[in-house]
Amino acid sequence: MSAKVYSHAKHDDVANAVGKHILKIQDESLKSSSTFKIALSGGSLGKVLKQCLIDNSTIAPNVQWDKWEVYFSDERLVPLDHPDSNYGLFNEMVLSNLPASTTKPKVKTIDESLLTGKDGQVESSSLLKDQEIAKSYEASLPENAKFDLILLGCGPDGHTCSLFPEHKLLQERNEFISSINDSPKPPPRRITFTFPVLERATSIAFVAEGAGKAPILEEIFTNKSSKLPSKLVNDLDTGVEVLWFVDDSAIEGINVISSKY
Ligand SMILES: O=C1O[C@H](COP(=O)(O)O)[C@@H](O)[C@H](O)[C@H]1O
Question: Theoretical Cys-Cys bridge with 192: which of 38, 147, 162, 212, CB 3.0 to 4.6 Å?
Fold first, then answer.
């Protein structure tokens, strides 16, 4: 299945399209399950999520928050209230803006207690500690690490989750969640979904906006032999649907077929 690209001129329309897709997969998933299992990313996605899930008066009332199980496709190994935390971003943008009467979703975060030493201070990097955090997060994943929807970002270097170009984690086949302590983008200590999790998903949706993303999108969509992590997601042949939600500036001048969602 090849990746489909949905492009809109304005940021608001991109956010609206992302929101419509989330509702579509939510509704389909809830026909056969009591919960909707979604994984989120950090970075620029936070703003998009606020716009579609909180501010959009057509979409917001149809989000069945009480049935959502929220995970993170990658997480930075920092306290949950640290500005670098992907959970922290989601909390700031979305959770903290939910009306008080709304039943909150179940949100699976890293076990923050594993970050700190006996004195309560965040411990400096330790491979074993980071592996323990990854194992503990893996234990909280849905059965068979199967997600209904995974929302991804694409960094200007083509990374997605915390899977970076040419990093050995691109080959990981034994773990669903791996730790990385040499992330080229700060902070260096993170945990991340691996390809076996991405392969099992029902739907994967990238969100990438701005002219700054155009050079990397050009490589992803026009260089057939590229091994960039986001391109490897496009190439998955496990039946997972892969969609891209972009603005026109992110694909300007690129030979890629796009439509409106
Ligand atoms: O470090 C990260 O970066 C990617 C891409 O972020 P963006 O701001 O360029 O959209 C993000 O998807 C990932 O979750 C995050 O940890």
Answer: 162
